[in-house]
Write a structure and sequence with these properties.
491 residues; mainly beta; five-stranded mixed β-sheet; five-stranded antiparallel β-sheet; 37 strands
Length: 491
């Protein structure tokens, strides 16, 4: 036979064999025969813009960073083309995305993702509540309109609960130091309203400054979120007007006053600065508007504060310990300094930063005195504060409501609204809010067994507990580590 003709006859057969081998090879490598579709070995998932790479098949449920029941969850599978079919919570992802209603957040409540890729069928479960969050239980039913906002000293966690004791939002990003006192928490979770729109903010630790942390100081940044809890800005300190504090320095998380998304007061306290020849952790506040520091205040400009110390607290380094700021109707500032048992009115209007008056909790009569106070707020002539009570003989925490002269700061009347009901002692942190005759206490950090599981309590007008959130653990150390920074209520 002519060899050329033989070659032409056998070539089509050989090519057919080559194509068949190629298809077989594709199938061995995980490609659907003839389709060119890759069989997925992982799922590139986004839930509310947070990214999760999930190895397939998934052997355990996936913890989500954040979730809420107030808005549908935006679900997106980035590599959806590698799947024949995907459904999330019963909703098929025709273009790799869907909006999923989340009815409940809780232990055991999961979102189910069912997928098909190649010849594989599989399921991925998403925990609606991150498995690392301590178990929180509710008792009773709250009546004051609004929700409870929780933040934690040693956990990078913020949460929001409704009056039925149901979690409606959380954000949790634990590190490899979880369940230890070396993990820095998220503090001071707040709700803000500006120009008819809702914003949220919280203080988050910044790991770039973690080596500066010490007990009472959580160096970090303020995270501003929109009404859907989507982060829209992260705020660090601007350079101080005297040039001592560098641009981009960490903020302190004790308090934050919001005027608008471009106007706020933040604390960068615990800056080390020389005071009378000694390096100390000093207090510093700055008011920022449209990207500029328009007013700032240093404790170093007020040497008299060195003389305000008492023997209840160690002031050898952290000598003022700022923890609250409020802008009063006359545009001056109300500030609280924990270790000095002091609340002051600061002259913001003239720009001097001088003290207009001072309330020294240590010098007041017993029914008015306070030690280590938190969350000081002035409304007309009513001053409310969470008196940790470190200096009381009985180490008893009180919820204080005092009537003062707003022009002089002189305390006229008032005292503990609980009238010694319960023998609670909270070492630090905490909050006290009044809503007409009713009130709410966020219990902060307690090291006393039996007290250190309480997060927040709501009381009726008679002072009776009607609602409480508590975290449950048999481990006393973990109870302490689960202590809240502030638990507050916003309508």
């Amino acid at each position: 036979m002519n060899m050329k003709r033989f070659f032409l006859l056998i070539l089509p057969v050989a090519l057919c064999g080559l194509v068949a081998c190629s298809d077989d090879k594709d199938e061995e490598n995980g490609n659907k025969r003839g389709s060119g579709q890759t069989v997925a070995t992982e799922m590139c998932l986004y839930v509310n813009d947070e990214h999760y790479d999930i190895a397939l098949p998934a052997t355990k449920a996936v913890d989500l960073i954040t979730l809420n029941t107030e808005f549908d969850a935006d679900i997106r599978v980035e590599n959806a083309r590698e799947f024949t079919k995907i459904s999330v919570g019963g909703i098929e992802l025709t273009d790799g995305t869907c909006s999923l209603p989340v009815k409940k957040i809780g232990i055991g409540e999961k979102i189910e993702i069912i997928y098909e890729t190649g010849n594989q069928l599989g399921t991925v479960h998403l925990n609606t509540l991150h498995s690392g969050i301590p178990k929180i239980v509710a008792t009773g039913k709250a009546e004051i309109p609004g929700q409870f906002y929780l933040s934690f000293i040693w956990r990078p966690l913020i949460m929001k609960y409704n009056n039925d004791g149901e979690c409606v939002f959380y954000r949790y990003q634990p590190t490899d130091k979880a369940d230890t006192p070396d993990e820095l928490g998220c503090w001071d979770f707040k709700k803000h309203i500006f120009d008819g729109k809702t914003y949220y903010s919280y203080h988050a630790p910044d790991q770039a400054f973690a080596d500066r942390a010490f007990t009472g100081y959580d160096p970090g940044m303020r995270v501003l979120m929109d009404e859907h809890y989507t982060p829209i800005d992260t705020i660090h300190a601007l350079a101080s007007r005297d040039g001592f504090l560098p641009e981009g320095s960490p903020l302190d998380g004790h308090d934050f006053y919001f005027f608008s998304p471009t106007h706020w007061i933040a604390s960068a306290s615990y800056v080390e600065r020389e005071v009378n020849g000694t390096p100390l952790a000093v207090g510093y506040l700055q008011e920022v508007k449209d990207g500029k520091v328009v007013f700032d205040w240093w404790s170093t400009d007020h040497p008299e504060m060195l003389n305000w110390a008492c023997d209840v607290f160690d002031t050898s380094y952290d000598y003022v310990h700022f923890n609250a700021v409020q802008v009063l109707p006359d545009e001056n500032w109300l500030c609280s300094f924990r270790v000095l048992n002091t609340i002051v009115k600061i002259d913001r209007v003239s720009g001097t930063g001088d003290f207009l008056w001072r309330i020294d909790g240590d010098s007041l009569v017993d029914k008015h005195c306070f030690y280590g106070q938190h969350y000081a707020r002035l409304n007309d002539s009513t001053l409310t504060l969470f008196d940790n009570g470190n200096g009381h003989d009985t180490k008893h925490t009180r919820l204080m409501k005092l009537t003062i002269d707003p022009e002089t700061g002189k305390v006229k009347s008032g005292g503990d609204v609980l009238h010694n009901k319960g023998d609670y002692f909270t070492v630090a942190c905490g909050a006290f809010q009044t809503f007409g005759e009713r009130f709410v206490a966020g219990w902060g950090w307690s090291m006393t067994e039996g007290d250190n599981d309480r997060l927040v309590t709501e009381y009726d007008a008679s002072g009776q507990e009607i609602f409480q959130l508590s975290h449950i653990s048999r481990n006393v150390l973990l109870n302490e580590l689960n202590s809240s920074y502030r638990c507050v209520k916003y309508e």
